Amino acid sequence: FVLLGKIIETKAKFSMKDTLIRLHFSIPRKVRKPLENGCFHFVPIKEIKQGDLFAVFQGEKIPLDGRVVEGNGFCDESVMTGESLPVCKQVASSVIGGSILQNGNLMISSVGAVEKSTISKIIDLVETGLKSKSTYKRAVDPILLFFVPAILVIASLTAFYSWVFVGGEMALLKALSIILIACPCAIGIAVPLAEAYLMKRLLKLGIIIRNR
């Protein structure tokens, strides 16, 4: 049960990471870049550098962080900021990659490459937090390291004593009774289950756990 609790905890952490990565890959892979003749052509998002211009039309997802240089409209930034109301964007306004342009058309100047976008930074922070060790150690963890072996030793000694001095027919029953009564199932699995549930609920609310 202790091992199962650890597995659940690990799975919850990486499901949080997978959700962020899916969000990252939901961003368009190509950007509409203006030409000198006033037309547009699509280029891979990786080719966009700081200061490059790209256009976003109504209903489209903004692929990169940037600053509006032409046009106006309203953006749905709830996926990144949690703000439920559309945010007005006009010349000189900042836009966040991953938000949706609900109406209007914008010409945007990129403030950096895709690796430096807000969502990429968030994913990097979460990955760093998942790879590093927790900043705290649960109070029960050191106890569990010695508790389980100690209970097994006590149960074995009880069985041996009962077999030699009391009677063999009750030895196994007494050993099993000690193991069942002292079973650390609640300690070993309750905390990881609570943590897994909390991390999933917080992620649905737009709250990202960087470290614990």
Structure in words:
- By secondary structure, the chain is of the alpha+beta class.
- The protein is built from six helices and seven strands.
- The chain has helices at residues 2-25, 78-81, 118-131, 140-166, 171-181, 185-204, and strands at residues 30-34, 40-44, 53-56, 66-76, 87-89, 94-95, 100-110.
- The strands form two sheets. Strands 3, 4, 5, 6 and 7 form a five-stranded antiparallel β-sheet that branches.
- Helix 1 (2-25) runs parallel beside helix 6 (185-204).
Short overview:
The protein is of the alpha+beta class and 212 residues long. The protein is built from 6 helices and 7 strands; from the N terminus they run H-E-E-E-E-H-E-E-E-H-H-H-H.
**Helix proportion:** 40-55%
Please identify the structural class as seen in this structure.
Answer: alpha+beta
Low-pLDDT residue intervals, each spanning 5 or more residues = none
Mean pLDDT: 81
Cα Rg:
28 Å
Could you tell me how far the N terminus lies from the C terminus, measured between alpha carbons in angstroms?
22 Å
> What is the strand tally?
7
Share of β-strand residues: 15-25%
Give the overall shape: rod-shaped
The helix/strand series, from N terminus to C terminus, equals HEEEEHEEEHHHH
Q: Number of DSSP helices?
A: 6
Largest sheet: 5 strands, antiparallel
